[in-house]
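Tutorial, part two.
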Amino acid sequence: MAYEEHDWVDDELITAERLNAMEDGTGAGVNPVAATVAAVSAADATATASTDVVAPAEFSAAAALANETKAKLNSLIANLKAAGIVASE
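Running the prediction step on this input gives:
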């Protein structure tokens, strides 16, 4: 179910239903980031011994995913700041 914005008015009763709808809508905006984090977590990270070597292509793929994730997180933070949800520095 897609999030539907609610236009609040003065003296309106805040209900659990409205708060839950906001949380559901906020969570939907985070899901793309969560999917990226899940993709990183699902990656084969079993090479832990000091003798293990990561192939350049694997390193490049991990770096690209990290940069993509960083860009998405920075965008999310900027949007939260613009919406007044997170304080700007």
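The chain has a mean pLDDT of 76. In part three we will examine how such features are distributed along the chain.
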